[in-house]
Amino acid sequence: MEQRVLRFETQAGVRIYSLPVEVFSQFYANVYLVVADSTICLIDTGSGHGNSNRDLLTGFAALQDQWGEKLSLAEVNQIILTHAHIDHFGGLPFVRQFTQAQTAIHIADRRVITNYDGRLRFASKALSRFLRHAGVSAAQHQHLMGMYLQNKEAFQTAPIEQTFEDGDRLCDLFDVVYTPGHCPGQVCLRLDEVLFSADHILARTAPHLAPEMITPGTGLEHYIWGLQQVARLDGIALTLGGHEQPIENLPKRLEQIFASNQRKIERISDLLKAQPQTVAQLSASMYRGLQGYDELLGIEKVGAFVEYLYLRGYVRPVNIAPDDDDRDPINVVYELF
Predict the structure, then answer these.
(1) In angstroms, what is the C-alpha Rg of the chain?
(2) Which is nearest to 279 in space by CA: 251, 260, 253, 307?
(3) What pLDDT is attached to residue 325?
(4) How does strand 6-9 pair with strand 15-24?
(5) Contact predicate 17/6, CB 8 Å
(6) 267: three-class secondary structure by DSSP
(7) Which residues form a coiled coil (predicted)?
């Protein structure tokens, strides 16, 4: 399917271009170029993998061909990263070959980019502990960890010149709405009546969630809080996500997401009511036939929902004895109570 550059304009006359880039094989993200008087801002940079950099250049070329906008990466004077996931920041070293624009990210995600190798090692150990906690087999553990680390070592630590927090105003254009859950430093950016929702709110699918026991600031608790933050916004006429199509009815989409989360909670509760299970067993029941990286994502997502239920006292582990030693528990079985 052909991916085309889309153009939007706010009521104040700010021009927005959506540049589709293939961040992984057959998986696309939206990079946004915002043009407002002297500010030429790039929101996210793609992954830097595969066709991503090529697609970014193709998108800039299409600005003139489709819209008569004579701009290149060299004219970009501000870069804003919506969150520190590789499909949104991995193209940063490539982009910085063309421009000396300062890069900004939420303070909670700064360490991912400025200390990338150290953060990767820390996150890998946390994921390994979670998978053992979740009840995967030794062979499955090795397989999933191998997939997690694949291609992640290609990115090198990069500088971040600016950080921001909830409520800050950037470039005298964007109001920051802090929306953690998918990522500790995930933000939405409001520009007039337009909301850049990054991966927090997508048109068709729900963003990936992982439990806080892997990374603080993620998880269902934070994600729901972030959705509530967005639900309080008035006057949003257009929502532009980090993937998929634009959203024209934000309240309706929020209702759908809240309902989807509730269905997952009820499904997990029903499965645990039938019999106690590990997170891995729950994932296999809920997401049958997942393979490759999707298998890891499924286990992490179920882990986030089980963690949410545990923190609210709806589920509890049944195979951790009071006299267990201090080693991290493995193959933890949960029950509904």
Answers:
(1) 21
(2) 307
(3) 59
(4) antiparallel
(5) yes
(6) helix
(7) none
Domain ranges within the chain, ordered by starting residue: 6-115+157-248, 124-149+260-336
Alpha carbon distance 295, 281 (integer Å): 12
> Phi and psi at residue 149, in whole multiples of 5°?
-85, -15
- For the four alpha carbons of 93, 97, 98 and 99, in that order, the dihedral sign comes to positive
For 124-149+260-336, CATH number out of 1.10.10, 3.30.70, 1.20.140, 1.10.3470 equals 1.10.10
* 259 Cβ neighbours under 8 A, 6+ residues apart: none
DSSP structure string for 50-90: TTHHHHHHHHHHHHHHHH-----GGG--EEE-S---HHHHT
Chain position carrying tokens 């961040």: 23
In 3D space, the residue among 16, 21, 17, 27 whose CA is nearest the CA of residue 3 turns out to be: 21
Report the C-alpha gap between 243 and 265 in whole angstroms. 25
Closest Cα partner for 43 from 205, 201, 215, 174? 174
Please report, as a single letter, which amino acid is at residue 331.
N
Report the distance separating Cα 81 and Cα 94, nearest Å.
14
Name the helix (H) or strand (E) containing 197: strand 194-198
The rounded distance, in Å, linking the Cα atoms of 142 and 121 is 16
- Using a cut of 0.90, tell me whether the model's pTM lies above it: yes
Smallest CA-to-CA distance from 279 within 251, 301, 264, 256 is with 301
Residue corresponding to tokens 């992640």: 152
Domain boundaries 6-115+157-248, CATH class: alpha beta
DSSP code string of 213-263: TTSTTBSHHHHHHHHHHHHT-----EEEESSS--BS-HHHHHHHHHHHHHH
Burial label for 119, CB within 10 Å (0-12, 13-18, 19+), is middle
